[in-house]
Amino acid sequence: MDINHLRYLAIGDSLTAGIGVPLLDPGFVEYYRYLSHQIFKRRIAYQKNARSGATTDDVLKMLNSPTVTEAVNCANIITITAGGNDLINAAKKFLVNKDEESISYAIKQTVNNISKILEKIHHLDKQDQYILRLTNLYNPFPNIPIADDGIRAFNSMLNKLSQEPNVKVVDIYSVFKDNEKTLLPPGGVHPNGSGYYQIALALSRGGYSPLLS
Questions:
Q1: Considering the entire predicted model, what is its pTM?
Q2: Interhelix angle for 100-124 vs 84-97, to 10°?
Q3: Is residue 19 a contact partner of residue 190, using CB atoms and an 8 Å limit?
Q4: Considering only 132-141, 161-170, 173-182, 190-199, which range has the smallest mean pLDDT?
Q5: Which residues contact 161 (CB under 8 A, 6 or more apart)?
Q6: Is the Cβ–Cβ distance between 8 and 47 less than 8 Å?
Q7: Percent of the chain topping pLDDT 70
């Protein structure tokens, strides 16, 4: 690891893209980079590979791109946001077929895809020391009980991936729980500026081991 220079790669969906705030305003990626710089006192170069609406399958396919592969090879810090769109798509199907089993199946498939994403990154990353940070899902629909049930079930399964080397699942569900009016715009599903800052803060508080002992 170059002690004077760290590389940060952010991969994922609309949360990584920073949807929900004005174009030039920071999202959690920019905030997390700043907070990480404060910790390491080193220059942190960053690259963002994200698409609004991306599912876990889409994120997995991103890792086939030579540009992303090269970025993974060089990255000391990697963050991943994925899963929200998979669950939204499953919820839309549920509204049509009313089959709760289809929600359970979608949750298992989504976590399985994320496990494949981690496996691929572990295989690609050539750094001696690197960290992988996943965010769990917050609930933008707190008044819909089945939405909360599904998200908590997903988060519970996702937590098991924290057992993998260099991986930590960061809890943003609890950050947003009962704070939706402060961290989400009225009627919105994407965070406002305060929401994105709180995601970055949760990531930073999750620590940097083994990069920083």
A1: 0.94
A2: 160
A3: yes
A4: 161-170
A5: 111, 114, 115, 118, 134, 167, 169
A6: yes
A7: 98
The torsion angles phi and psi of 100, rounded to 5 degrees, stand at -65, -25
| Domains defined for the chain, CATH in brackets | 5-205 (3.40.50.1110)
Q: For residue 123, what are the contacts with CB-CB under 8 A and spacing of at least 6?
A: none
pLDDT, residue 120, reads 95
* Phi/psi at 133 (5° precision): -120, 120
- pLDDT, position 102: 80
Query: Radius of gyration of the chain from Cα atoms?
Result: 17
Q: How confident is the model at residue 144 (pLDDT cuts 50, 70, 90)?
A: confident
Average pLDDT value for residue range 88-110: 86
CA distance 172 to 175: 5
Closest C-alpha to 9, from 81, 80, 82, 78: 78
Is the pLDDT reported for residue 1 higher than 60? no
Task: Report the distance separating Cα 10 and Cα 75, nearest Å.
Answer: 10
Q: How many CB atoms lie within 10 A of CB 205?
A: 10
